[in-house]
Amino acid sequence: MRLETWFIQIRHFAQLIVTSLDGLAPAQDQPLCIVQVTSFKCGGFAMGVSTNHATFDGLSFKIFLQNLAALAADKPLAVIPCNDRQLLAARSPPCVTFPHPELLKLKIPIGEEPKPTVFEAAPEELDFKIFRLSPGDIANLKEAAKSKDGKSRITGFKVMTAHIWRCKALSHEAENNLDRLSTILYAVDIRSKLRPPLPLAYTGNAVLTAYATAKCRDLEEGPLSRLVEMVSEGAERMTDEYARSAIDWGELYKGFPHGEFLVSSWWRLGFSEVEYPWGKPRYSCPVVYHRKDIILLFPDIDEATSDGINVLVALPHKEMEKFETLFHKFLA
After folding, report:
1. CATH number where 149 lies
2. Domain span holding position 327
3. Catalytic pick from 275, 290, 321, 328?
4. Is the overall model pTM greater than 0.85, yes or no?
5. DSSP 59
6. Is 275 annotated in the active site?
7. Which tens digit of pLDDT belongs to each residue from 20-45?
8. Which of 30, 68, 228, 298 is most buried (CB neighbours < 10 A)?
9. Inter-residue contact 213 to 233 (CB < 8 Å)
10. Is 173 annotated as catalytic?
């Protein structure tokens, strides 16, 4: 299947999920998880799942799917979930020990609506495009990102995030201002960062937002190795104490992540590996949604035979043209 054809289809995937139930209040009374099954004339079917991120993160959602598959097969739960939310509760009293520029305090005058955040962009005309990177493209980026000392470990996620950061920052409407600071946000799983670590079966949201900030001039002129280092430093910053400080910050200020855009990866979550009574899914992917400041990474269409990455980007037309030019320029 051609990527363009598949993308036309994925935009219609929204018909296969239910995000809210009629008759219930939009926020407070909606279910935390809604599953819709759609049968097709060919005999196949699609399972669309809408969840609240407070209930699951990517890793714990896979546990949910594994247990759903086990119940459908009339078997015991595949994983006994750990639902102890106190493991990630704020300390008493809360103690913020780090500055958190990746978070923004929620200060809204009475009677005013909050401004759109990186997670809730205002509706506008957007172009949607998928940029596919083959395993060879990823290998070339890793080679280009090698530092002289060769000490830093370069992962596919880090080098892809650095590459996207450079393209997104320089395609911004204010890209001519090379002294402008650009801040990228990306999710970090804190299960292994905490002391003691969270149980492997923890099924809440154990993801916090890491960040990296640089001038656009450095993003344009600096080596890719330095950008990868900054992405690495953002993840390494997420120690036990930093994570606890961020949780306590949230308890005090009720704010939200603050940056130019967010990279969210579905690349290694393994939803398509779940074995249901009727077999494994042919494919598993996120549904396209109207957000210009969230860039999604997800597996190749033929993920069983390819280790490529698809990058889903939504931008206004002019920004998309610049992003596409830069994406291929820096990839060459």
Report:
1. 3.30.559.10
2. 53-331
3. 275
4. yes
5. H
6. yes
7. 888 777 666 788 889 999 999 999 99
8. 228
9. no
10. no
